[in-house]
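Q: I'm writing up a methods section and want to include an example of the input and output format. Could you take the sequence below and give the corresponding predicted structure tokens, formatted cleanly so I can copy it straight into the document?
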Amino acid sequence: MSVENQSEMAESWVAERLTEIKGIKDASERVEALVSLAAEMLPSRAEVLQLALEAANSIGDEGDKAEALSALAPRLPESEQHEVLQLALKAANSLEEGSKAEALSALAPQLPESATDLLQLALDSANSLGDEGDKAEALSALAPRLPESATDLLQLALEAARASDLVIIPCRPAILDLRAIGSTVDLVNLAKAKACIVLNAVPSRGTLAEEAVEAVSSYGVKVLPVRIGQRAAFVHALTAGKTAQEYEPNGKAAKEIKDLYMAICKHAKL
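A: Here is the clean output for your methods example:
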């Protein structure tokens, strides 16, 4: 087969794959598929990544958007990374405290040490968290990215962890989140604080939750049996400025939060 024929077949395959991916309704899944496709091809990589960026920006849920943008940023040209990370940080900052801490922790490993403005914004956001456990989680993830002059940050994170009755480590069943909580677990162990992991934004179908439990088992931290699903009720409640219980008292989201509260009380022996 000639080189020309091989090239035509490759272009045809790419076109078919792009058509399939464009048909994926969920924007987060579309971003993931486009990033995977970009990793397999070099000539059209820039075009595919641009499509992935457009898909990421169209995601309605700010937590999913922050995750998608932070995962996409390292694969983009350096000239575009700063702006995309800035958008990811903006999305993270729009979340409620627990989700914000989780998003900041996942975003932290992607922030280059040279991006001092972004690191400062992330640090300010972490320090603004009212819950000491959330603050410890975010600060411990940011600490390795900061210059040596910021070594007192680790002490702040340790103090926050030690002041907590229980450090709750939220984690989505996604590779970036599963990796990001490692630094939080290290800090919790250093502080000798009691902790637990809570899986959230868990899809209603598939085995992602079970795979995530297996992946974090090496950390030696208890994973609470209650899982928070990826439900529209949480998004609508946040938009309305309400809790899940206030928005839909008898809904599944409200029940999950109630069950989580009971599980936390039992684990913390409150």
